[in-house]
Amino acid sequence: MIVYVDLVFFNNLAVDGMVLLATAKVRHLRPSRSRLFAGAFLGAFYAAAMFWAHFPYMYSFGAKVLISLIMVLLALGYGGPLAFIRNFGAFYLVNFATLGGVIGLSYLLKSADSPWRGMQYTADGGLILDWQMQLGLYIVALSLSFWLFKSTSETRVRRQELEQLFWDIEIKVESGSWAVRALLDTGNRLYDPLTRIPVMIMEAAIWKAELPTGWSERLKAEPPDKLIAEMDTDHTEGYPWGNRLRLIPYRAINGNTRLMLAIKPDIVLLSREGHTPLRVSRVLIGLDGGTLSSEGTYQAIVHPDMAKAEPVSSAPSQPA
């Protein structure tokens, strides 16, 4: 068998460079090109050295781990023991995900009469797999594996960041209590223009049973001032929450000013894992006739001012 050591070296130089670059992106690091090249060069030299000289101990498990540690150290730096361990783990995770994807794609595209065809056993019991792939297909498969891994990693990171914005809220009105999942929206700057009370948004369907008949559905298409104008009719006369209703003007995406139906609760409690629960009494709840989350992950949007409220332990026992 003829082995072109220069091709082995340059192939591993490119692959190791891409793996180290992907590891840096996963870890949100920006190493210099010279550092990435140094790490990739060591990996490529190590892979090609086996064809120049035979040193069994150089290719033991311990030696491979040591070379990998040095590659990560050269490319990404140290940054402390915890950061270095995370970089090293991410390096192997990227390796397994991307190169495994290349091998999987090659076998997916390969056709054979028998699944055992192309497999050979060595004299000492080793297994040899006949894996052949054209250079162009190899580059495409490797790039696709990197892209899939990077996209999946970024999606997971975004979901984790989004999880930090989720709150569990409990709304209390008179003797009733409702618990919903809410998302903190730092871009929500809706206030009652007269009192400057912050307005959080909630799906009207949550209070379907407490609202007058049909209101939660009609809010999808009808202006809330029309519903308020019907309060003097027979079917809404004496509505117990009548004195809690408000109309809040807001500016829609198209620039037009519209009205939102809001309710004044007694207390809103915000809680999140690892944080002290918060108690908010100065807030209005705007009702949205649609669905706030297409995936159903939350049913309310918390105003950022609510996250600055006093903790329950230090808040007054009665609403302000």
Can you tell me about this structure?
- The longest helix is centred in the N-terminal third of the chain and has 29 residues, at 81-109.
- The protein starts with a helix and ends in an 18-residue tail after the last strand.
- Helices cover 38% and strands 19% of the residues.
- It is of the alpha+beta class and 320 residues long.
- The chain has two domains: 5-109 and 132-163; 166-308, no CATH class.
- It has seven helices and eleven strands.
- The strands form two sheets. Strands 6-7-10-5-11-4-3-8-9 form a nine-stranded mixed sheet, with no helix packed on it.
- The mean pLDDT is 79.
- The chain crosses the membrane at residues 36-55, 61-78, 90-109, 129-149.
Largest sheet: 9 strands, mixed
Task: Give the helix proportion (percent range).
Answer: 25-40%
Number of domains: 2
User: How many distinct helices?
Assistant: 7
Distance separating the two termini = 85 Å
As a whole number of angstroms, the C-alpha radius of gyration is 31 Å
Number of separate strands: 11
Strand content: 15-25%
Which secondary-structure class do the elements indicate? alpha+beta
3D shape: elongated
**Strand numbers in spatial order across the main sheet:** 6-7-10-5-11-4-3-8-9
H/E element order = HHHHEEHEEEHHEEEEEE
Mean pLDDT: 79
